[in-house]
TrEMBL record:
Keywords: Oxidoreductase
Keyword Oxidoreductase: yes
EC class: oxidoreductase
Molecular function GO labels: oxidoreductase activity
EC annotation from Swiss-Prot or TrEMBL: 1.1.1.-
Xref: InterPro entries: NAD(P)-bd_dom_sf, SDR_fam
Keyword Oxidoreductase: yes
Organism: Pseudonocardia yunnanensis
Protein name: SDR family NAD(P)-dependent oxidoreductase
Gene3D superfamilies on file: NAD(P)-binding Rossmann-like Domain
Family in the record: Belongs to the short-chain dehydrogenases/reductases (SDR) family.
Length: 247
């Protein structure tokens, strides 16, 4: 029986690339979306046309009832989850600390960690019972290297990074790995909508590999951590940035 992967926020961008690649590699894939039903259905259609198995699951991953409903349906259809790829974005304010309110900073922290907590809680019991599981969290290089105006996003993702490390330590004895994939600015995502095109050009020019990341670049790293090749890798932070930041 093929393994099961749940990809949150999979209707577009990085999530879509992850869902299609995992399906291509033989995993039955749950394409989670919050409101973009048509786009999620298009991802499922693409996977099905290529011979894979997928279905679209609506859930706002910051809402406990939605998360419970989605994972109950996953268990009913396909049994437990082998790999969780938590990619779903939550809104955040851009701006300086001086202009930021606590509601904006604290709200981003709360939504970021609430979503990660809820989806992880939903899959870990079955993973522990089976003695195997893969947890992959999408972060950002801004969690380690600050950029003006990105304090809310960078702080929230830094908390996510540490959350994954604690999970790696606690769940390792149960055969469960937890890893973070941290891309730099990625084409075909919110970056193109919210960042100045001139800034995007500057970042691409400053990258040793000469371009911004693409969703497929990120998906390949995610697929490594979600698969069997990463059996002995946990608690890691993997930048996907073309050499823009070399830690």
């Amino acid at each position: 029986m093929s393994q099961v992967a749940v990809v949150t926020g999979a209707s577009r961008g990085i999530g879509r690339a992850c869902a299609t690649l995992l399906a291509e590699r033989g995993m039955r894939t749950v394409v989670n979306y919050r409101s973009s039903r048509a786009e999620a259905d298009a991802v499922v259609a693409e996977i099905s046309a290529a011979g894979g198995e997928a279905w679209a699951a609506q859930a706002d991953v910051t809402l406990p009832a939605d998360v419970d409903r989605m994972f109950a349906e996953v268990r009913d259809r396909w049994g437990g989850v082998d790999a969780l790829v938590h990619n779903a974005p939550t809104p955040f304010a851009m701006g300086s600390f001086r202009d930021l309110t606590w509601e904006e900073l604290g709200g981003k922290l709360d939504q970021e960690m609430r979503a990660a907590f809820l989806v992880t809680k939903a899959v870990v019991p079955d993973m522990v019972e089976r003695g195997r599981g893969r947890l992959v969290y999408l972060s950002t290089g801004l969690s380690r290297r600050p950029r003006s105006g990105m304090i809310a996003l960078g702080t929230a993702k830094a908390a996510l990074n540490q959350f994954a490390r604690y999970l790696a330590q606690e769940l390792g004895p149960h055969g469960i790995t937890a890893n973070v994939v941290a891309p730099a600015t990625v084409e075909e995502t919110w970056s193109e909508e919210r960042l100045d095109p001139a800034l995007l050009e500057q970042m691409a020019a400053a990258t040793p590999l000469g371009r911004l990341a693409r969703p497929a670049d990120v998906a390949r790293t995610v697929a490594f951590f979600a698969g069997d090749e990463a059996d002995f890798t946990t608690g890691s932070y993997a930048p996907v940035n073309g050499g823009l930041a070399m830690d």
